[in-house]
Specification:
Helix content: 55-70%
Radius of gyration: 21 Å
Distance between the termini: 25 Å
CATH superfamily of the largest domain: Winged helix-like DNA-binding domain superfamily/Winged helix DNA-binding domain
Strand content: 5-15%
Number of helices: 7
């Protein structure tokens, strides 16, 4: 695991905390993402929940919550370990699903969704009053223009500019 050579400390963890925030998660998801990416690129192996807890120092409950969130976003996937012997439920092994570029694109999509939600809220506000008056109308115009400008900037970035060629 990556912890042995010190990759899970300092700048690496901070980078992945920022990545977690970028895709809409708590920075606490950063160490889990870092552990999974480091393991993926170092050995190509998957990590169990116990491995994730050991590397991050998180409790099983906290690690489980973060893993569930990452799975729901499609960032990681889990597979049962059928090589495990003994009775009982087989452990689940986790790995990143795709590349770092795929996660970066997820952040862009997240921003686009938030901007669309803001535009819908603006439309609702405008519909309630059948056209805001005075300084409030000016505020609404400025907000709308700012959101539309950001959307246009995001549209102008093609996915080939974001994706790293595989």
């Amino acid at each position: 695991m990556g912890e042995a050579n010190g990759l899970m400390k300092g700048p690496t963890t901070r980078l992945f905390e920022k990545v977690a925030k970028w895709i809409g998660l708590s920075p606490n998801a950063g160490p889990v993402l870092a552990a999974l990416f480091i393991e993926h690129y170092e050995t190509g192996e998957r990590l169990s929940s116990d491995d994730i807890c050991q590397v991050t120092g998180y409790s099983r409950a906290n690690a489980g919550l973060i893993v569930s969130q990452l799975e729901a976003l499609g960032v990681i996937d889990g597979q049962r370990d059928y090589d495990q012997t003994g009775r009982g439920r087989k452990r689940v092994l986790y790995a990143v699903n795709g590349t770092f570029s795929d996660i970066f694109e997820l952040g862009v999509i997240s921003i686009q969704d938030r901007l669309n939600g803001m535009l819908k809220d603006l439309q609702t506000i405008e519909n309630i009053d059948a056209g805001p008056k005075g300084s409030f109308a000016q505020l609404m115009k400025e907000v709308r223009k700012s959101i539309e400008n950001r959307q246009e900037e995001l549209r102008s970035i093609s996915s080939s500019d974001i994706s790293v060629r595989r």
